[in-house]
Amino acid sequence: MSDRFSRTIYVGNLPADIRESEIEDLFYKFGRILDIELKIPPRPPCYCFVEFENSRDAEDAIRSRDGYNFDCCRLRVELAHGGRGPSSNDRRGGYGRERERGRDGGGGGGSSRYGGASRHSEYRVIVRGLPSSASWQDLKDHMRKCGDICFAEVYRDSEGTYGLVDYTNYEDMKYAIRKLDDSEFKNPWTRTYIRVNEHKFSPTRSRSRSRSPRKRSRSSSRSVERSPVEK
């Protein structure tokens, strides 16, 4: 149970007319979402719980969205501490269970937004020249200046420390290459200059594992703001 709490976040101070799809738009880029429980009390503000597959994704969502201004509401985002209780989702079968049916063969093939390798995309860059102290959080913070990221990880090989970063669309990937190549990368311990290039997938890579460009249709006029690019 404690493991579930480590990957579940509480989101407070939501507007009274908030929709589940808008919560999804706020948090999908941080990692695979297993469940959303929206709470609409008799008096606002509304609040919800969002459960990620990975506790690191939950931590990243907290760092990026706590204090975020959404529709004139300053969001409060922190780790959940239990007491989730029943929600509107319980009446329609649950967000997570509905996604599980689509992912595991209940129709629709392998293109589910949350299915299979959905945290990866074909819009990938390789980042060379990272310091040995670089973490995936440091890398993600630096690279998200140019767009929405769905995956980031740090590795080491014979040439040193490097990173792989997946963007959700082609335009953000090309913008990152143009703006962040030879940019200064820094964390609390060191700073260095990095090289950013497009990562070329092997020709034998199965096309079925490629992520289609994300289509985000919304009936609401609200949109998630993109952070400005910083040099």
Automatic annotation (TrEMBL):
A GO-annotated cellular component: spliceosomal complex
SMART domains recorded: RRM
UniProt feature, compositional bias: Basic and acidic residues: 89-104
A Pfam family reported for this protein in Swiss-Prot or TrEMBL: RRM_1
Family stated for the protein in its record: Belongs to the splicing factor SR family. SR subfamily.
Basic residues bias locations: 206-219
Domain of life: Eukaryota
Compartments, record wording: Nucleus speckle; Nucleus, Nucleoplasm
GO molecular function: mRNA binding
Region Disordered, residue ranges: 84-117, 200-231
UniProt keywords, alphabetically: mRNA processing, mRNA splicing, Nucleus, Phosphoprotein, Repeat, RNA-binding, Spliceosome
Keyword check for Repeat: yes
Span of domain RRM: 7-82, 123-201
Protein name from the UniProt record: RRM domain-containing protein
GO terms under biological process: mRNA processing; RNA splicing
Main location: nucleus
Species: Genlisea aurea
